[in-house]
Design a protein that fits this description.
Number of strands: 9
Strand content: 15-25%
Distance between the termini: 29 Å
Helix content: 25-40%
CATH class: Alpha Beta
Bound molecules: ligand G3I
CATH architecture: Alpha-Beta Barrel
Strand order of the largest sheet: 1-2-3-4-5-6-8-9
Number of domains: 1
CATH superfamily: Glycosidases
């Protein structure tokens, strides 16, 4: 009897680790979460053209974000020059497969149309010129994808990192070229105003990383609260979710969602991944963990962190509309394959973390 039991559990364990094919008869992520929120993924061009990868996208996800192809520099590299091909391909994939598209991103200090900031002599333009260029860009992009894009990250990462100023007033804004030209936060307000004019039905997001860090969380909260009170059309907050196996803690994640839920009706986790080292956030300087092998302990810690994130988000399903993974598999990750940050491994096979998420594991 005891031997039978051991054999039974050993076989169950084995079936959990048998790779991509094993999931065919099982629930997908989007099915498992249908009563809670949508499950999204950021895609590149390969993910939507390779047949294995695109079936995985279709099977598991009901929301897509273009990882890079709808960003300002990708669609509008020069004044008067629009390059739509890659963004159109992603939009068409969504249209053909009935998948919703999260627009990412209308304005960002990175991958921005640098030309918008300068005149022909390479001097910074006036804020009036900048706003007119932003208006044209936002109206054109939003109008082109209005039929398929249900929400936009209107402004990305405008708040700075780091501690509060110990000597009085805290200047919360990133000192970007937008900020240099305007000297205050008017460029953020204008971006939301232009997006609302272009599509009154799209849900408009402010999106940022390190959003669970108490100092940055409060900066985001205060800015959005004040802008909403002044009539700026911000509908939602995007929590990027570039986390690691050590943090943020369940308490900090919970506190951030709860605070944001006080001031907006829509919250999305927009760029979820969980690295196996201590780095976090959206900054482009990170370690690729060259040649590092993931340990059993790190795998376990990653499963615990994924279970925690999804448990907290399920508890906030009234305002949480969508949780998006930033990339399809470890092979696609912007962090490189050796940070092992996603639920699908470099062969596109589900890891145990995938099952923990899908089966509401309470680790
Ligand atoms: O397109 C060029 C290509 O022409 C060139 O040959 C190649 C050589 O390096 O670079 C290519 O551009 C790269 C681009 O991705 C497209 O692949 C850039 O170097 C690379 O820096 C860029 O990285 C992207 C990063 O945003 C840029 O800031 C990542 O793929 C993308 O995942 C990442 O996504 C951001 C979110 O949009 C906002 N939140 C943070 C998140 C992570 O940084």
């Amino acid at each position: 009897m005891i031997m039978k039991k051991i054999l039974f559990f050993a076989l169950c364990g084995l079936s959990v680790f048998t790779g991509a094919n094993a999931q065919d008869s099982e629930k997908s992520l989007k099915e498992a979460y249908k009563d809670y929120f949508m499950i999204g993924v950021a895609v590149n061009q390969r993910n939507i053209s390779d047949s294995m990868q695109s079936s995985l996208v279709r099977r598991e996800f009901n929301s897509i974000t273009a990882e890079n192809d709808m960003k300002p520099v990708s669609v509008h590299p020069e004044e008067g020059k629009w390059t739509w091909e890659k963004a159109d391909r992603i939009a068409n994939f969504c249209r053909q497969n009935g998948i919703k598209l999260r627009g990412h991103a209308l304005m960002w200090h990175n991958q921005m149309c640098e030309w918008m900031f300068y005149d022909k002599q390479h001097n910074l333009v006036s804020k009036e010129v900048l706003f007119e260029r932003m208006r044209e860009h936002i109206h054109t992009v939003v109008n082109r994808y209005k039929d398929v894009v249900y929400c936009w990250d209107v402004f990305n990462e405008a708040i700075k990192d780091g501690p509060r100023n110990p000597e009085g007033m805290d200047q919360p804004l990133r000192e970007s070229t937008f900020y240099k030209i305007c000297g205050n936060d008017e460029y953020i307000r204008k971006a939301f105003q232009f997006a609302r004019e272009a599509d009154p039905n799209a849900i408009l997001f402010y999106n940022d990383y390190n959003e669970c860090d108490p100092v940055k969380r409060d900066r985001i909260y205060e800015m959005v609260k004040e802008m909403k009170a002044a009539g700026v059309p911000i509908d939602g907050i995007g929590m990027q979710g570039h986390y690691n196996i050590y943090g943020p803690s369940e308490e900090d994640i919970e506190a951030a969602v709860s605070k944001y839920a006080e001031i907006v009706d829509h919250i999305h986790v927009t760029e979820l991944d969980i690295r196996v080292n201590k780095e976090m956030g959206g900054q482009l300087r990170f370690s690729r963990n060259e040649n590092a092998k993931i340990t059993e302990e790190q795998k376990q810690m990653q499963e615990v962190k994924y279970a925690t994130v999804f448990r907290v988000m399920r508890q906030h399903a009234d305002k949480m509309d969508c949780v998006t993974f930033w990339n399809l598999s470890d092979r696609d990750s912007w962090l490189g394959v050796n940070n092992y940050p996603l639920p699908f491994d470099k062969e596109y096979k589900p890891k145990n973390a995938y099952r923990v998420i899908r089966d509401f594991g309470n680790k």
